[in-house]
Amino acid sequence: MAAAGLLAALAGLGVGLRLFGGAQEAAVATGVTDARGALTVATWNVCGVRQWNCEDTGPAGEKRARIEALARESGARVILLQEMCSGDLDSVRASLGGEWHSLFRPYTAGRDGRGATVNCTGDGRGTAGYGILSALPLSRVAEASLPQPATGLRRAVLCATAGAEDVRICTAHLNPPQSGAGSVTAELRADQLRALVEAASGPRTVFGGDLNTGPPGRGVTDAWAGVEGPYGVYRECDQSASSGRPRETHRGGYKIDYLFTGLPRQECSVVRSPASDHWALLMRVATG
Q: Dihedral angle at the C-alpha atoms of 156, 88, 126, 144, nearest 10 degrees?
C-alpha cells in the first residue's frame, strides 16, 4: 500500500502515526484518554543529567515536551520518571496544568560521610533525581530504603496512592551492575528487587521503573533468582503466556524498564523517542 493510502487507512481506524527521529512508529491515537475504570501508567528514564552520558539525547526542552506528550497524546495519567531534573519536573507540571501533581526525590552520593545531591547541567534545572507525575492527587507518600552498594548513587523506592482510583504507585531506579568505582553483585540487585516488591505489595498496585536488569530466564542476569512476586503474584506490562520476547526499552536493544501490577492489564505499549537512551513504557490497567 502506498504511504498516503496507509496513512489514510490508519486515520480512518483512529490510529495515529508519530514521527520520532525520522522513523515511523504505529501508536495509540493522539489525545487518547482512559475510559472510566481504567488508568494508564508510564515509566521513562529521561536521561536528563547530561554529564551521565546523556549529551547526545537532546536538550531539556525536548525532554519536557516528550513527557507532556505522554500525558496529552498517549493518555498517561501517572508517569514514573528517572534521571529527572527537579526544575524540569516543576516546569512540566506547571505546563500540564494545576490539576497535575508531582513528587521528587534526589539521588545522593556519599561524600565525606554525608549525602550530597547531584546538580543538573543548565540554569534552573535543579538536582538529579526520580519522581512521580500524576493527574490524580497523591496521598500516603512513603519511601522505602534499598540495600546500597559501597559506592555509587544512593536511591530508594518512592510510593504514593493515586487519587480516587485508589492505586498504589511505586517507582524505583535500581543500581546497574557497575555503580561508581565498583561492581554491584547480582545478589545485591536481587535484594533491591525484593525490597521494591515488598514496598509495593498489595492487589491494587502498579510499580516499576528502570530496574537495570534484563528479564529473567534469558541468560542475561541472575538477579531475579529467588525473587518471588513480580512474575508470579504480579504481571509485567509486556508479560504474556507465550515465550515471546518482551519488547526492548533501551536503544541498545534490550529491556531494563518495567511496570508490574496485580490489576487486570488492558494494554501495553512502548513509545520511542530520540530524547533519551530509554523508551517510555506504558500500561493501562482496569481499576473498576
A: -10
Query: Which of residues 241 and 203 earns the better pLDDT score?
Result: 203
**pLDDT computed for residue 183 by the predictor:** 78
pLDDT tens-digit readout, 146-193: 998 877 788 999 999 999 899 999 999 998 887 666 678 888 889 999
The DSSP string of 129-167 is EEEEEESS-EEEEEEEE----SSSEE-EEEEEEEGGGTE
| Amino acid present at 73 | E
Helices 60-72 and 86-96 cross at an angle (nearest 10°) of: 40
User: How would DSSP label each residue in 185-243?
Assistant: -HHHHHHHHHHHHHHT-SSSEEEEEE--SPPTTSSS-STTTT--STTTTSEETT--SS-
The shares of helix, strand and coil residues in the chain, as percent rounded to the nearest 5, are 20, 35, 45
Rounded-to-integer distance, Cα 209 and Cα 282, Å: 11
| pTM score | 0.86
DSSP 8-state code for residue 50: T
